[in-house]
Design goal:
26% of the residues lie in helices and 37% in strands. By secondary structure, it is an alpha+beta fold. The chain has one domain (23-143). It has a seven-stranded antiparallel beta sheet with strand order 1-9-4-5-6-7-8. The chain has a two-stranded antiparallel ribbon with strand order 2-3. It is elongated.
Length: 144
């Protein structure tokens, strides 16, 4: 009887240890926000909705922000990606993180990567005090 109990215990421990834990993700969708003159840009902006669709299964932390310039009232979209790393990451191992600033039309204006910053306009955009976050459009992040 003891042998049976020990074998069952060892078998149970083996199964529990061999199970791979799948990471859990929290997804936030803001359908109330208006960005670049578009209500609900998650659905009504082609390039934003395509980006979200393409990255819905990503294992990286991704946030899409709406920024607004206090002087010109110009709006921009900032996409911030921070890989969770490890073998589950589907972003190139070269950039450990990156942040890209886009125009409302989806044209990339400048980018920051862990390898270095494309300084053209970067400091003015983020450090002039004129541009600030108006809201979050979408995010997906790992929850530990």
């Amino acid at each position: 009887m003891k042998t049976k109990t020990i074998i069952c215990f060892i078998f149970t421990v083996f199964i529990l240890l061999s199970c791979e834990k799948k990471p859990k993700y929290e997804i936030y969708e803001n359908h109330e926000i208006s960005a670049c003159g578009i209500n609900d840009p998650m659905k009504n902006s082609q390039w934003i909705s395509e980006f979200i669709e393409k990255n819905m299964e990503s294992t990286n932390n991704i946030t899409i922000y709406l920024y607004s310039n206090s002087e010109t009232k110009e709006e921009n979209i900032v996409i911030d990606i921070t890989p969770n790393g490890g073998e589950n990451s589907n972003v190139s191992i070269d950039p450990f993180f990156w942040k890209k600033v886009y125009s409302c039309a989806g044209v990339q204006m400048f980018v920051s990567e862990s390898e270095g910053i494309d300084r053209e306009g970067w400091n003015h955009f983020f450090f002039s005090g004129q541009n600030s976050i108006e809201g979050i459009i979408w995010y997906s992040k790992i929850v530990y």
